[in-house]
Design brief:
103 residues; alpha+beta; 6-stranded mixed sheet; 6 strands
Length: 103
């Protein structure tokens, strides 16, 4: 009987450790993705401020992103309007309006 309790306690401890490890891993993956999107938003906003009238800037990214109506990843507003998906984003200014699009 005592051996059964020890084995059950060990199984519960292993399950708790696995659950905690998975939670930490999942949180760090989400935090890394959010940090990446925040840095991409800063890059696109800086490009939007710097692009001259009639000019365009090509932004090449290591991982694809999604921009919908000027919002990156559904979370980060941009200083440019438009929709783009992919790892190459064009930031262009025409008639005083800054827009993004895919390459």
């Amino acid at each position: 009987m005592d051996e059964c309790l020890v084995v059950a306690a060990m199984v519960l401890a292993a399950a708790a450790a696995a659950s905690l490890g998975h939670a930490v891993y999942a949180h760090s993956a989400r935090a890394g993705r959010n940090l990446y999107l925040e840095q991409v938003a800063e890059l696109i906003n800086a490009s939007a401020r710097a692009v001259p009238e009639g000019g365009r800037v090509y932004v090449y990214l290591p991982r694809p992103v999604g921009i919908l109506d000027g919002v990156l990843g559904g979370r980060y507003p941009l200083a440019a309007d438009g929709t783009a998906i992919g790892s190459c984003i064009v930031v262009e200014r025409a008639s005083g309006v800054v827009r993004v699009r895919g390459c």
